[in-house]
Amino acid sequence: MHPFRFAVQSSRTPTLAAWRDLARSCERLGYSCLYIPDHFGDQFGPLVALTVAAEATSTLRVGSLVFDNDYRHPVVLAKEIATLDLASAGRVEFGLGAGWKASDYEEAGMPLDAAGVRVARMLEGLAVMKGLWESERFSFSGEHYSVTNAHGLPRPRSSPHPPIVIGGGSRRILSIAGREADIVGVNPDLRSGRIGAEVVPTLVPERWDERVAWVRDAAGERFDNLELQVLTFMVTIGRPKKEVVAEAAPLFGVPPEVAADIPIALVGTVDEVYEDLIARRERWGFSYIVVKEGDVETFAPVVERLAGT
Known about the structure:
It contains 11 helices and 13 strands. The chain is an alpha/beta fold. It has one domain: TIM Barrel, CATH 3.20.20. The strands form 3 sheets. Strands 1-2-3-5-8-9-10-13 form an 8-stranded parallel β-barrel, surrounded by 8 helices. β8 (164-168), α6 and β9 form a beta-alpha-beta unit.
């Protein structure tokens, strides 16, 4: 089993000074990484924000959950990530996705291609970036990208490249993550492009069994080297778990006994959350837990107790 790590995801803070303070707080409280998403709504530009966070800290890792391959040409993104990895002394976690949020594409006037097309394009983009990070010159010819003798410089500090994060809820994406990633985000299924009632059936514990099995089957012998990550959407620390679950169960559309085991929620006393995280690591292998910025202080006692164990 991997030791527990914890991270924070934030889109923005009121000011960049507050963003630096958030990064320093994450580092001080024992969080491993500060992540930022990659959307077109009200959020900081990821690459600049991650650079600022890295400059404000000395041990905190910085990363993306996740860069959308459709928004960024892989030759350009490879150079930016390599530079960020150098600037942070090798503290980058590079998350990459095929895109899913329909409103991003609508806002930008970009076509939202079929999922199969977007995933195939992401795979080619990842192949290009890996090639550039591992070679001084790299060429590639595919259906979506054609790269001719492109410069793979500067090289990232991390060797052969920063840890790669790929997450999703479908069999295809999780199989790709099992083969290509270092950190696998196991998520609800969001292929619809929106978060709605259709997501609820994908939240029950048995579906998480299924998703982890997909990763395991695809990863083969490398499975034990993978970190399995979960992004949480509900954190309530301090109140008895039974009480919180009874209130939350209707939101998920499931009975309380089922809601109590949904991995995207962490509720209860510190002791109860501790026990749940240990049980979830034993059942699913989830050792890398991500919370939202509003939960940094509230969740800190759990981080203090479990980080590194």
